[in-house]
Amino acid sequence: MIKITFPDGSVREYEQGVTGLQIAESISPALARDVLACGVNGETVELNRPINADSTVQLYKWEDDEGKHAFWHTSAHLLAEALQELYPGIQFGFGPAVENGFFYDVLLKDGEAIKEGDFPKIEDKMRELASKKEPVVRKEVSKADALKEFAADGQTYKCEHIEQDLEDGSITTYTQGAFTDLCKGPHLLNTGLIKAIKLTSVAGAFWRGDATREQMQRLYGITFPKKKMLDEYLVMLEEAKKRDHRKIGKEMELFMFSERVGKGLPIWLPKGTELRLRMQDMLRKIQSRYGYKEVITPHIGSKNLYVTSGHYAHYGKDSFQPIHTPEEGEEYMLKPMNCPHHCEVFAWKPRSYRDLPLRIAEFGTVYRYEQSGELHGLTRVRSFTQDDAHIFCRPDQVKNEFLRVMDIIHTVFSIFHFDNFEAQISLRDPNDREKYIGSDEVWEKGEQAIIEACKEKGLKAKIEYGEAAFYGPKLDFMVKDAIGRRWQLGTIQIDYNLPERFKLEYTDEDNTKKTPVMIHRAPFGSMERFCAVLIEHTAGHFPLWLTPDQVAILPISEKYNDYAARVARELDAVGVRATIDSRNEKIGRKVRDNELKRIPYMVIVGEKEQADGTVSVRKQGSEERGVMTIVEFAGKVNAEVAELLKATDVRPE
């Protein structure tokens, strides 16, 4: 008999070799019907995998990310199986599950291509195969046998993957029907649970992400266990199109891109710049109360700076390449991150334990090379500004500083009404420690500090192994927007390694030299990404304090343009931002056009308003109107802004 421990701490005994499905059946038939995969000691496996020793077990349903992952991983194989039947001679690359569905990279023979018009026949074939409830069979194979099998099928890319990436004794295949794939799993027990299928798009993708290699086609899709779920998802996709920050950003004149300037390099237009600066000012106000000091560092740095930090070794190949100056041997790099510069600020003069914690903040623009196929509006760019800060503290101050940063992030989220968020503790991959720098001792200290801080705050955080930064563990915040999509925004990271690499030190109370601990933190993450998410979350209807134009003044005809200008001056004098639509257009057209610009208030002025010194007020999205004096209206707007900004008036405990 073996002992199985469940997430609630309860323990049951089962015969050795019991499977996840049998455990589910022993609990309830309903659970056995719903369970999709099984977690055994932190590893997600199929429900028919035998458990041969005492283990901690978790059963995953559709509601769990692990359950969806197994469902969509199997769906990726189902897509490949359908493509194999429909397109003889097709070559397969990689086909993983992703956050919302799955994709498969493929290459058709003789320059053929799959188009969106082909999606219905592919979906029909997938449904036909799924209805057969084909078992998904896992098999361990030797490297030689794997090469022989995939070479016989003419799968060039699979053979390259086996030769270059896989080690003998660790290779598994999964077979369903006539299709076999290299895979680590996990998968569903059979394809029968896949009821609703939709291919969503097709794009280009270089093999292994290498622009010098062949360009394949990447087919994206999503599946569900019920048709109703797919219908709801398609409605959400339509809503997402309406909220696309690229579309709204253009309509509201917030930002632009220029091919002449370069791909992935956003230009903030006047209204977008106003919005961004207001966000920065809001965070500055909060940070100042928490004792942060702001700095400005250069946009480039000596290559040696990033060699010292370790960033060049980890990211150098994938970054913008070094800049060579006329002086022989002198190399600079576009700044890919701010932390090495801040280490130099700390090292600028001797520090005492009395100086700590030292909190250095910067709205620092950084540059990272992203492949052109990965660029997407403001969410994936090559130039972005981080609301970065680095806290240098004593080891005994780490947890308290971490808690204070959590307070700042919670405040920021509440101001922008990101009320639905999850936290993820990102730790080292226990099976691959070579990709991290620093000793086991400092990693364990950092990981424990994050776990304790989350417990103290009562924050339920999911632990993800292998997601840590190369220099330290971190706590990431995943925000759900108004239509349920997840975005990774704020982050806090503990770093014992960079201070050692830069030989940073302070004089302790006993007059000995000690190395500080460094905390990296960015509540927004990046200004670009946060703005993109905020646009889509609000559909461009920003909070009144933030929006570039709070009021649109609409004169009924050109005769009242002078009165409109007077209204604008009086509003401006008391801090209300107004714009005048003085076009020679009918008032209905002006209202419709300014609705598109998402300006919170429209005030209509004509003969009566001019005579009485009033404005006719119309709120965005509402037909209701009210007549007020200019002073009354300005007071209403400013009172509403003051109420919204109460959340920024936070004080550290």
From TrEMBL:
Residue sites binding Zn(2+) per the record: C339, H390, H520
UniProt feature coiled coil, ranges: none
One of the protein's GO biological processes: threonyl-tRNA aminoacylation
Location of this chain's protein in the cell: Cytoplasm
Segments forming domain Aminoacyl-transfer RNA synthetases class-II family profile: 244-555
Needed co-factor(s): Zn(2+)
Domain TGS: 1-61
Keywords on record: Aminoacyl-tRNA synthetase, ATP-binding, Cytoplasm, Ligase, Metal-binding, Nucleotide-binding, Protein biosynthesis, RNA-binding, tRNA-binding, Zinc
Top-rank taxon: Bacteria
Main localization of the protein described in the UniProt heading: cytoplasm
EC number(s) given by UniProt: 6.1.1.3
Pfam families, alphabetized: HGTP_anticodon, TGS, tRNA-synt_2b, tRNA_SAD
UniProt-listed PANTHER family: THREONINE--TRNA LIGASE, CHLOROPLASTIC_MITOCHONDRIAL 2, THREONINE-TRNA LIGASE
Protein's recorded name: Threonine--tRNA ligase
Native source species: Marseilla massiliensis
Gene: thrS
